[in-house]
Design goal:
The chain is of the alpha+beta class and 215 residues long. The protein is built from six helices and five strands, in the order E-E-H-H-E-H-H-E-E-H-H.
Length: 215
């Protein structure tokens, strides 16, 4: 942005004096004002932004719970699959997404797993840890895909490893290709409706969280 001498919104003079100053708000704050209000100025100064920021906060506190609910309802509907070319899917490749989780197994878990191995069974506790790590990775992949404007993840690969000198930490890693389906109806009516505006939902949440505009 070129150097401005007056606020594009209220036309107040801009100055950086020691005792009295009027400067522009951050670019991020101006974007938030323009996103959530009818004001569409190029920038906003401190003299005129107080009322606008308060308006954004009120809108944000009203919308935040619904945005969180929309996100929670939509994310699980993003398919994360190992297939490279699902039948009937026409899509545009967006990019690679990755996820990692590390979970402590704990001494008791390792002992229980050892006895189970002796008996030829699988440790339920270790299985629970693995499942938790997998679910966390799935959610990470879905969220990353959604922020990129994708609505599915294909070609997903899963790896497991023990990390740490004592091998007391369990790591789950996933990687896949985020794609944007041209026709969401292949995922069903519910997914088609909830995933349609998911990127915008995440964008609004990021703005509100990043600028601490919600209580």
């Amino acid at each position: 942005m070129e150097t401005l001498t007056h606020c594009p919104n209220c036309r107040s003079s801009l100055n950086g004096g020691f005792f009295s100053s009027n400067t522009l708000m951050s670019e991020e704050m101006s974007k938030a004002i323009n996103y959530f209000t009818e004001n569409k100025a190029e920038a906003h100064c401190r003299n005129c932004s107080d009322k606008l920021v308060e308006e954004v906060k009120q809108i944000g506190n009203f919308r935040f719970p619904q945005l969180q609910a929309d996100l929670a309802a939509a994310l699980p509907l993003i398919p994360v699959i190992s297939l490279q070319q699902p039948q009937g899917w026409n899509y545009t490749i967006i990019g690679m997404v990755t996820a990692q989780t590390v979970t402590g197994t704990g001494v008791l878990t390792e002992i229980a797993s050892g006895w189970s191995d002796l008996l030829g069974a699988t440790s339920a506790r270790m299985g629970s840890k693995l499942k938790q790590g997998e679910n966390d990775c799935f959610n990470q992949l879905r969220y990353q895909a959604a922020t990129l404007g994708a609505n599915a993840v294909i070609g997903t690969d899963i790896d497991y490893a023990e990390v740490g000198t004592m091998k007391g930490m369990l790591m789950v890693c996933m990687a896949g290709t985020a794609v944007r389906l041209q026709d969401l109806s292949v995922l069903g009516t519910t997914a088609c409706h909830k995933l349609k505006n998911l990127k915008e939902v995440i964008a609004e949440l990021d703005i509100l969280r990043g600028l601490n505009l919600v209580e």
